[in-house]
Amino acid sequence: MNHRFHTTATRAAFAMAALPLAISFSAQAQYAEATTELAALDPVVVTAALAPRTANESLSSVSVLDEATFRRQDPTSLTDLLRGQPGVDVTSNGSFGKSGSVSLRGAPGDANVLMIDGIRLRSATAGSAAFQYLDPRMFDRAEIVRGPRGSLYGADAVGGVIQLFTPDGDEQGPQPNISIGGGSFNTQRVSAGISGREGGTRYSFAGSHFNTDGQPVRQGGEDMGYDNTSALARMSHTFDSGAEVGFLALRARGTTEYDESGSLATTDYVQQVAGIYGELPITDNWRSRLTLSEARDESVNHHWGSILDTQTRTARWENTLSAGVHELIVGAEYLNDSVAGSITGDMPWDGPYDVEKRDNKAVFGQALLDFAPFAVQASLRYDDNEAYGDEVTGSLALGYELDNYHTLRASIGTAFKAPSFNDLYWPNSGNPDLNPEKSETVEVGVRGQYSQWFWDVAVFQNDYDDLIAWAPTPSGLWVPQNVNNARIRGAELSSGVEVNDWVLQAAYTYLDPEDQETGNRLARRASQSVRLDADRELGDWSLGGSLVAQGYRYDNASNTQRLGGYGLVNLRAGWQFAPLWTARVTVENAFDKEYETSRDYINAGRAGFLSVHFGQ
After folding, report:
1. What phi and psi, each to the nearest 5 degrees, are found at residue 169?
2. Residue 27's pLDDT is what?
3. How many Cα atoms are found within 13 Å in the side-chain-facing hemisphere of 547?
């Protein structure tokens, strides 16, 4: 099976590499046409450089999942959208709200940053974000930026940044939407919202509920259910002077069931972000923005008696100064992590964390310089954290337009991953003397951008120092220590086309993650992955499907527990049976493939869902 996957992946990679050559001449002849398709294939992104840039101009490896993608695929989990995207790997302990990890370029889940409309969300105890608790219907866009962004976002932006965007209400007048549906595993799903724009005011309000009995996560086990209730409120106003104010509030809560040594156990959770901002044009060439926000990650485990509650409060001040085609962004950030009230369990050795708060103060700057055909992006950031000291990160990216269609880029950047509260202060086993993990990444890439096609190739190497791992002290006590070094090399290839009512996307990732102390592969990283998405509009009908194939991985550091590769096929269809009314059918894992990304944890088999939608 692994040999067949390797052959399939190799052929797919060859075909994708040949695709831009095969279409280059016809695409160049059509360059002046189809500006709408060009905007979709070369979208404007803000995550990569803190300023609006097209994907081609960003000098970054970036992928965008737009509103049309969210609507067509209508996934039950965000990880279904992310799995197999360029540089993205997903592991999970089962389907429907079960714990897992999203990895960018082989970086562990706690070495990537998740942001929601500019507000960071993650657990300060575990260090990573709980993607599994976020309802995809609360979002209409995702930007996936691969490569270090520590000099822009601070700690943990080692593998990259994923930013999710909620609807902002850009259509004139109120736009209501309602969706109701259900399917396999006794799943029920309902959502409703209203968004729009009146003069300078934009608004978006939405709510959703998802409930399922789930499936067993272990062989022979019982069904493990999950429910999620989410609410969103967002509003902004732009004044005639160009000043803008706004607020955002997003909250998700529910319960997930999981297998604890063969028995059913439950965890209650809350995911929440809230923020207000104000942006003011000081002069024609100077805009200043202040954002105050709070993020919360809470879980109550009824089996272990633990309460883990993270509250992160942030004040961020950004200033953008322009001089013709050049821009300078400078700012400061204050961040406070609190785990006050957290209890690690009800056993005698459990208790509160030894330290419950930490502050981080930072200043940062970035220059975006355009000397066409050359472009330069340089950034620097200084962080001072009361738990682990100060860190300086930086990056430099150079771009060169080979012609109207091709851009060459090269970059080098540093980043660091902060030790979590679990690493530092877990009762009786934390190590408060830990240093952050450090990384340095070098990348070279080239992008071809045409009127109806694009392709992008990148190769990279990321060197890690002071990786945190459990190791014995001289007294024999096992605690987290800075002991390991690693090197991750890889290549990414992506391509897309929109033509004759077809939307096609393809991605291939190769990864070589090596523990330099042992020479083994780092655990839970797939060696190769391929993703193909194809959708076709047929009048009132739409048809589509996705293929995701991944190579083998090892579940442990010693590489003795091998998990085989797998391939998944998801199918979808839509029918607009009346103005503003659409019915959608999705079939996930259509061939009922049994597969594992974590040892002894199986994911859901074939699942079908039917839903009816009203709205734009």
Report:
1. 70, 60
2. 35
3. 14
Pairing of strands 160-165, 112-116: parallel
Helix (H, G, I), strand (E, B) or coil at 37: helix
Which pair of structure tokens corresponds to residue 537? 């509009």
560-581 b/e (C-beta count within 10 Å ≥ 16 → b): eeebebbbbbbebebbeeeeee
List pLDDT tens digits, range 501-532: 999 999 999 999 999 989 999 999 999 999 99
Quote the tokens at residue 615.
């709205």
Q: Report pLDDT for 615.
A: 92
Residue 77: closest CA among 609, 612, 616: 609
What residues of the chain score a pLDDT lower than 70? Answer: 1-40
pLDDT above 90 covers a percentage of the chain that reads 86
Query: What's the whole-model pTM score?
Result: 0.92
* Rounded-to-integer distance, Cα 605 and Cα 569, Å: 11
Whether the link from the prior residue into 281 is cis, omega within 30° of 0, is: no
Whether 331 and 316 have beta carbons less than 8 Å apart is answered as yes
| Closest-CA residue to 421 (of 348, 480, 488) | 480
Q: What is the pLDDT of residues 446-492, one digit of tens each?
A: 999 998 999 999 999 999 999 998 888 787 778 899 988 999 999 99
Q: What is the model's pLDDT at position 39?
A: 59
Burial (0-12, 13-18, 19+ Cβ within 10 Å), 148: buried
> SS3 string of 464-520?
EEEEEEEEECCCCCEEEEEEEEEEEEEEEEEEEEEECCEEEEEEEEEEEEEECCCCC
Close Cβ partners of 223 (under 8 Å, ≥ 6 residues apart): 185, 213, 214, 215, 216
Element (H, E) at 12: helix 2-29
Q: Side chain identity at 174, as an amino acid letter?
A: P
Q: Which amino acid is at 596?
A: E
For residue 251, count other CB atoms closer than 10 A to its CB: 17
Name the residue with tokens 């969300």.
121
pLDDT of residue 40: 67
Which residue in 542, 475, 496 sits closest to 73, CA to CA? 542
Helix (H) or strand (E) holding 38: helix 35-41
The encoded tokens of residue 267 equal 């965890």
